[in-house]
Amino acid sequence: GGGGGGGGGGSGGGRRRTGTDTGTGTGPGSRWVKSSRQGSPVTVSSVQPIPLHQAIDGVVHRIPSTGGDDSSCMFFTRFKQSSQTFRYVGGTAEHLWAYCDGEDRAVALTGDYKGTSRSPAIYRVEDSSEVGGDDSTTTSTYYLLFISDRHDGGDGTWIPGTLNLWAVPLPTQEEMYSIPYSEVDGEAGHMPKKMPRPFQLTSVNCEHDGMSLMEYSVDQAQNNLILRIGADLHIVGGKEVVKLLVRGGRRLHDIDEGRDDDKDDGVEMQGERKSTTNPAKDKSAKMDEKANKGKKKKRKKGNDDVSHRDGTGNGLPLSSAAMPKGAASSTFVSSSPARALPISIMSDLQNLHERLLPITHPTFVQLLDNIDAYKTPYGTVSALVTIRGQAWINPVIPDLDSFYIYKGGGMNMPPRRYRVAPGSTTGGMTRIMLAVQVPQPDKYTRTSLILATDPLSTTAELAFYLVETLADSTPAFADVSDLPRPILGGHLNGGSVKHGGLGSIKVGSLTVSPCGRRVAWTDTDGRICAMALPNLGDYWSTNATESQAAAPSEYTVLPQENENGQPMVGIEAELSWSPGGRYLAIEHSARNQFAVISVADLGEILTSNNTTNDDEDKGEKHDEEEDDAEEDWSIKVGRIVQATIDRFNSVDAYWGRTAFDMKTDEAAGAAGNSQVLPTATTLYYLTDRDVVLSGGVSSPWGSRAPGPHFEKNKCVYALPLVVDNGETSDSDKESDAQVAKKVFGGPYAGGGASELVMLRESVLEDIEEMKEEADEDTNGLKDAGSDADKGEGEGEGEEISNRRRTKAKALATSQPRTSPASSKEAEKSTEDGESNEGEHGDAEARGGLAKDVPAVPLLFPVDVHISFGSKADSSFSFARRAYRMSNIPKASYLGIVSQLNDDPALILLEKGESGSPLVKIFSIDDFPSDGVEPMPVEPKVPGMTVVTAGVTTSRHHLYFIYKMPGKVRTKIVSNDAASLISLLVKDDMFTKNIVDNSAWALSIWPSLEYQQMYDDAWRLLRDYFYDAGMTSIDWDEVYKRYLPLVGRCAKREELDDVLRQMASELSALHVFVYGGEYNLPLHEDESLELANEVASLGATVRRSDEWSGYVVTSLPERDPDFNLMDGKAIYSPLSHDVLKMSGQRGLEVGDVVIGVNGESVINVPSIHMLLRGMAGKSVRLEVLRVKSGPSPLLSRSRRVRTVTRRAAEGGDDAADDDAEDTEDTDHATPEPLIVVPLSPSDASNLRYTAWEWRTRQAVKQLSSQAGFSAGYIHLRDMSGTKAVDAFVRGFYPDYDKQALIVDVRHNHGGNIDSWLLDVLQRRAWMYWQGRATNITNGGLGWDEQFAFRGHVVVLIDEKTSSDGEGFSRGVSELGLGKLVGTRTWGGGIWLSSDNKLVDGGIASAPEIGTYNKNFGWGLGIENMGVDPDVWVDNDPHQTYGGRDAQLEKAISVLKEWLEEEPVVLPQRPGRHRDMSVREESKGCAAK
User: Fold this and answer.
1) Is the pLDDT of residue 315 over 70?
2) Separation CA 659–CA 900 (nearest Å)
């Protein structure tokens, strides 16, 4: 709510709220309305606008005038600060203004302070004194009360502090208007003071632990003050208020001491006249001396109870000697004048009851955080769903068409949905940020890794938990006395990164390796972190109880650079694990801001003998010491190699295989175990390196300076992770896969190259035979004297040759995948920069086995040993191995979803023409072909669109979320070719393998959730704020300050109030509290919202009892030269431009609307009642064409009836004609009019567009009168295509003018400032002249094309915000123009608004600071605003009347500028060069 209150003491004044109107004045604003019938009930016809633009909060009071006539004066604030910011001194800081009837302007009252002065109210102090006998005199002294955060700086200046209640003797009209007003000296801080220096009435910050006074009210019956501090209302009794005012103002005190008020008041006014109290006080100064002495004694006694506090809250004595000079009355406060009101409310507090939030089809997409899936031990598939801070297990229904609805009798029991976390009575206690399934070989257990806020942490610190998710498991966080213990973070070692804690994880970055043994994430401090997960078998046995729990896990922070020197900052990084968890692909920004991919080697994972669960079930044990020596999942950071070049963007890495790899595995008899992921040998990624110029723009010639535009298309590249070094290794040690790869050659050895396969085979055979012969000679195995031995040897050689030939040609049957018993020997150190391609490594890399290595069944995926090459390779040989998948067409791909586990097919998401994703499956032909066949996924459900698609953590399942009319469906598909074809491609109606989301609701306990959201908001602000040091604010103290208020919150809106106060302590702009789930009256029901939406006729109308209707007072006129404005053709429904298309005539100002759809508008409280729900629908109006005149057809009909009547009556023609004319003039006949009203948003847009058009016309007229040409551009914001269109519409048609006004008043910000500045920085340096064309008749003009050669003025005001301010500062810093107007909003820190709370609400955090050499941090914008070069304010009263003083000043500035520096076109250089043949060269020397 707002602040302030009505006047006290009966006649003190009344408070008025405001309505909005933009029909007059400069741009969007607001104005007051008041009743013109004092003492009568307020009706629509009795409400009249107060002639003020930008007036939103205040009080109306009648002030005595020394001239004898009282006048009505209004004390108000002009605008409301939008950002939640304490100690704010930017452009929209509230100031007190006043306007009195009959004056030509309003006046600023608090121009001596740039901070907040708001919520004015008037308080009357009555004083009755005996003056001889029984006669008594009653006088009144009036005070102006207001809330301000000012504090005395000790040197006579004000500094911002906390909000308190202040007072000042109410100035008279003469005092406010006696000092001349100067537009040049009118800025806050330069404005003439219109009232004495105020004094402080409260010291809320000292008495309430640093809190501020948020609002107050004056109890008109008892003259009490009601203060809202925190969650309580406090009362200051009327007598205490009087004491504070009288003693604080020292009025009666000075009289008692016999001092002259004008001389010793301690307050100086600008100008000759010093401040006095009002005339009533002067009269009281002549009271009876004896009575005054008695009062004097009483007041002196009371002085001991009055204290003075400075801005820091230190108590000071009341004596004037302790006060700054000239500020004696500035900070008088009472020690504790207020007491809390003991308010009791009898209520069931329904907003604190358990909420059951239904998960409907629309809300599922809105609230969904993550989805994972796994196969249960009993053969079904379940989905692990993270939704709105909770984790659930939802069953997957095989076929909706054949799904039997349970009808009792115990038959066909439906599958079960159950909670993972939290429980049914603890919903809201914790926020489940993310739940992912941890892949594991154990066939009988399922475990989820949960990232959640820790209820045991006082500030909702994030923590990792391991939670069982099988059907017989108990929900986590279900019992407050038995909460799970985190493995990292939370109450164990959470907190800010600066203080050694876990910080705030970027939830979308968190990824678990497909092997289930490692996890990685990024955080808001830009770190990239990795952690080994506990061995689940050991974890569940050692963490049975809290006392047995192991110490928190340790995590590793990766280096901030890769080995090529490129930065690796985790703010926007994307992470992807290799199947075996050894390597981490990191997508990050290079120093030049291009996206690159680096691959980090985090150390081989050693598992103790890869024992199977079956072995354990049989009781087979291994030596414990041997296990301890081999079991090692910890992170060991090795090389971090750049895998892509920084000359283009490369994104979305995916670990996969090629058809060539699958063929060689098949030939080597290693087809694999479907339960374990195959080894990845290729890193696929998307890149824009091969994109070309698009849009048909090939040169800068043409209207609007066409610029190059590049498609956002990407293509698919493949990076081989292992390469054959070309050396011939020992044949006996080569694996089957190695031999097969040598025979097949490369990944695409088909077509014309297939004939080489046989040649390679023959060569290999010859090489092998020669090597065998050489081995026999070396080992002395060949005996020349023994024919028998010789024959045996020849037979053996032939056998070996046949074996090699068989390996290359024959396809072995499928065998279980195997792995070395230990891979320690396989890994060679890469720290020295050497390649890690050892013998055993090559064997493992190629999916085969080294000779004589015993094999055991594989439990986890195996990673290759990547051939990185030399360390810090400046030639990027590793990255440049990549090749393009040329048969996959380039397109606007959003990401690589997956590759099938048993097929090289790739699944991608592509951005469709409508903006919705499209699922694209590219089937890759079998080796050796390089063919690719697109397989479209085209469901036959009308209106069906893709929401998203992805692969599960284990990569054994895919999920696809589709939206269709009235429903949303999530499909889970096994990641294999057969399932994809049968369950996705051929499932036209999308009914198979669907996640059950029916009849589902979340249980939420508001009181628990309010606490969690407060903690969460505080933590997110701490970890997202651009300065980790919190700009020296004691953020922990802020948390404690507002924490007690959370328990007082009885509904969501009250929590917002607490969050606003807490977030405001950052004293930064771009802090907004909004969103969330509120108990709205229309329940977000679209049909109810439309039914209650009040449509608009696109005109300003005034109720008229005289005409029994509504008189049209203005019709907004928009730019007639453009049909579409910001993408819409919006006209006033009553305008002729619209109605002429249907054969009707538009209305004019002065015409009257008397009926809507057959009902009289005068018989309802307001015409708007008849327009509810009518936006976009035809409405029949009954109108009186008082101004526009009757329609011709109606006039003709009237004449025919008149002639007929005259003929029947035999009347005189001339007399009848005169009577007819009189009748037509005096009595308008109702006419029907069919119109289509606008929605409220379109109506607002129309009024804004009309103001833009009026302002542009004014620029053209005023500049023409001043003798120069000028262009005009208005930018409402800096966001997207609409802002770009607005600039293009305004700039290019007027680029050749002498001056340009860029109007960024009311600009809401965005991000296109750099583009605008780039255009304005163009300079003309050459000119073109053709035979008939030149720079004055439409020729080519000059180069640089469309460079603006004139002078630029930028109009700014207090609502110029964010990027509008950045543009303004850029114009000033780059010397492109001058700034005219008032100080801007003050938002110099950028944000992304992604620190959302669990219910979608937010307390936004300023995240990206700005600086430069001249201004330092914040560019002189943050919490200050951009100061104009020429200050001029639009007076609220004059602006209401239509004047735009800022625009007038801009024209004046440009005129003077052009007189000093004329802008003229260059003169032609003169005659062209003489290229004729000179006479002396005509001689012919040769004869």
Assistant:
1) no
2) 11
List all residues 6 or more positions away from 1227 whose beta carbon is below 8 Å from its beta carbon: none
Average pLDDT over residues 1284-1310: 95
- Look at residue 862 and give its three-state secondary structure: coil
Q: Which of 1175, 1197, 1324, 1295 is nearest to 1242 (CA)?
A: 1175
- SS3 of 481, please? coil
What angle is formed at CA 53 by the lines to CA 119 and CA 29, rounded to 5 degrees? 90
Q: Give the integer Cα–Cα distance in Å for 132 and 431.
A: 76
Angle between helices 1035-1046 and 1052-1064 (to 10 degrees): 160
- Structure confidence at residue 1415 (pLDDT): 94
Smallest CA-to-CA distance from 850 within 828, 818, 884 is with: 818
What is the C-alpha separation between 1155 and 1232, in angstroms, rounded? 9
Cβ-Cβ contacts under 8 Å for 1058 (sequence gap 6 or more): 231, 1014, 1042, 1045, 1046, 1049
- Sequence length of the chain is 1487
Cβ–Cβ under 8 Å, residues 447 and 438 = yes
* Rounded CA separation 591/639 (Å): 19
Pairing of strands 1430-1431, 1378-1381: parallel
Q: Which of 823, 902, 812 is nearest to 856 (CA)?
A: 823
Sign of CA dihedral 1235, 1239, 1242, 1248: positive
Enter the pTM of the model. Answer: 0.85
Q: What is the pLDDT of residue 973?
A: 96
- Please return the burial class of 406, using the count of CB atoms within 10 Å of its CB with bins 0-12, 13-18 and 19+: exposed
pLDDT in tens, 512-555: 999 999 999 999 999 999 999 998 777 766 654 454 456 788 99
93-97 mean pLDDT: 94
Mean pLDDT value across residues 799-818:
40
Judge contact between 282 and 127, C-beta under 8 A.
Answer: no
> Per residue in 111-121, is it b (16+ CB within 10 Å) or e — as a string?
bbbbbbbbbbb
Query: What 8-state DSSP symbol labels residue 1263?
Result: H
Q: What does the CA dihedral 1411, 1414, 1416, 1421 come to, rounded to 10 degrees?
A: -70
CB atoms within 10 A of CB 42: 12
Q: pLDDT per residue over 821-852, tens digit each?
A: 333 333 443 444 444 443 334 433 333 333 34
Q: Name which of 686, 693, 720, 718 is nearest 707 in CA terms.
A: 693
Q: Which among 1326, 1257, 1317, 1258 is positioned nearest to 1287, based on CA atoms?
A: 1317
Distance between CA 419 and CA 489 in Å, rounded?
23
Residues 6 or more apart whose CB falls under 8 angstroms from that of 1364 comprise 1275, 1277, 1278, 1304, 1307, 1308, 1309, 1310, 1313, 1356, 1384
Q: How far apart are CA 872 and CA 864, in angstroms?
A: 21
Whole-number Å distance between alpha carbons of 487 and 552: 5
Lowest mean pLDDT among 173-177, 835-839, 1023-1027: 835-839
CA 471 – CA 416 distance, rounded (Å): 9
Judged against a pLDDT cut of 90, whether residue 1359 lies above it is answered with yes
Contact 673, 858 (CB under 8 A): yes
The C-alpha angle 697, 701, 705, rounded to 5 degrees, equals 80
Long-range contacts of 765-771 (CB under 8 A, 24+ apart): 765/801, 765/804, 765/805, 767/728, 767/731, 768/731, 768/800, 768/801, 768/804, 769/797, 769/800, 769/801, 771/728, 771/730, 771/731
Q: Is there a cis peptide before residue 422, judged by omega within 30 degrees of 0?
A: yes
What Cα–Cα distance (Å) separates residue 385 from each residue in 360, 779, 1080? Answer: 15, 65, 28
Rounded to an integer, what distance in angstroms lies between the CA atom of residue 811 and that of residue 813?
7
Look at residues 894, 925, 895, 899 and name the one whose alpha carbon lies nearest to residue 912: 894
C-alpha closest to that of 886 among 713, 715, 694: 715
Task: Name the amino acid, one letter, at 1021.
Answer: L
